[in-house]
Amino acid sequence: MGLDLEEEEKEVKVASPRTRTKRTKELLEENAKKVEELSNEHESLEKEISVIDGEDKTLGDKDVVGIDIEHEKFGTGKIAKQEGKYIEVQFNDVVKKFVLPGAIADGYLRINDEELVDFFKKKNDVHNRMLKAQVALRSNEFTSDRIKEEIEKIKEKA
Hints:
This protein is an alpha+beta fold and about 160 residues long. It has helices at about 20-60, 100-105, 115-155; strands at about 70, 75-85, 85-90, 95-100, 110. Helix 1 packs antiparallel against helix 3.
């Protein structure tokens, strides 16, 4: 018993390179411009961070152990210990930790030495500008990565 098989003609799709549409080209050009702008902004932010870091190093650090302070809730106390940006203040019956420079610059801890207050206000300003620049840099990097991924997706589709 024989089987009668008919051969079916199958269309063979040959992958031919697609031509990019006008819109695809426009998207690629727009994204390339955005990446270039972000790259320039990235360099600018890195320079800004470098300048701020230099300001911070120029200001240096101050040893505040032994200084008398006043706190609204805990009353008067003395700075007993300093480790980097952290200080421990001995009040009458309790020891509390605070973070410099903000604790003094923002007025949570009050001291009578105006020169020292000015120092911590400058230090706090430098610290806040550094944080803002670092967040902007990370945001820039994230945005740049997303646009580069978008460019790759467009290229794959085209």
